[in-house]
């Protein structure tokens, strides 16, 4: 599974603690993140994460590009609903793409925990079928 981690500044510590708590579940998966969030996770765990740019510098859009190509399986995006974000249009575009492609997306810690427990049970095996039977025209 390809999993992305994104966290606004005031949610980064919460994200790090969450990933530490579920590190054994994330091992063996391919992980992606926006810049600083990924760095903080790697500094506090043994996980290897492909880091994109910082969210405001295009990281949200880079993850969004993977979503648009149906190449992302799960996103944990801890948003700060009490702070205005200068790149709000990018955030909304990412959320919309997840809805269009049917990508599971958690925007708070409670939903993230439910999705990670489902991941641990193997409830996302249907995503393997999405990749296995991708139409040829999408592979070009």
TrEMBL record:
One Gene Ontology term of the molecular function aspect: methylglyoxal synthase activity
MGS-like domain span? 1-140
**The keyword Lyase is annotated on this UniProt entry:** yes
What is annotated as the active site?
Answer: 60
Q: Which InterPro entries match?
A: Methylgl_synth, Methylglyoxal_synth_AS, MGS-like_dom, MGS-like_dom_sf
- Asked if Lyase is a keyword of the record, the answer is yes
Q: What is its EC number?
A: 4.2.3.3
Q: What class of enzyme is it?
A: lyase
GO BP field: methylglyoxal biosynthetic process
Query: Source organism's superkingdom?
Result: Bacteria
GO (cellular component) term, any one: cytosol
Keywords of this protein's UniProt record, alphabetized?
Lyase
Q: Which residues bind substrate?
A: 8, 12, 34-37, 54-55, 87
Q: Record's Gene3D superfamilies?
A: Methylglyoxal synthase-like domain
> Catalytic activity, per the record?
dihydroxyacetone phosphate = methylglyoxal + phosphate
A Pfam family name for this chain? Answer: MGS
What HAMAP family does the record tag this protein with? Methylglyoxal_synth
Q: Which family does it belong to?
A: Belongs to the methylglyoxal synthase family.
What function is annotated for this protein? Catalyzes the formation of methylglyoxal from dihydroxyacetone phosphate.
Query: What is the official name of this protein in its record?
Result: Methylglyoxal synthase
Lineage runs: Bacteria, Bacillati, Bacillota, Bacilli, Bacillales
């Amino acid at each position: 599974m390809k999993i992305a981690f994104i966290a606004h500044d005031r949610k980064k510590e919460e994200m790090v603690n969450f990933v530490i708590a579920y590190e054994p579940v994330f091992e063996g998966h391919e992980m992606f993140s926006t810049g600083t969030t990924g760095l903080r996770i790697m500094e506090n765990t043994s996980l290897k994460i492909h880091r994109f740019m910082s969210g405001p510098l295009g990281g949200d859009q880079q993850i969004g590009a993977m979503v648009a190509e149906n190449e992302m399986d799960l996103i944990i995006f801890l948003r700060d609903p009490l702070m205005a974000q200068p790149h709000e249009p990018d955030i909304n575009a990412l959320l919309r793409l997840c809805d269009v492609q049917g990508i599971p997306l958690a925007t708070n810690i409670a939903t993230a925990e439910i999705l990670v427990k489902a991941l641990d049970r193997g409830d996302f095996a249907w995503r393997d079928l999405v990749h296995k039977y991708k139409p040829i025209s999408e592979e070009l």
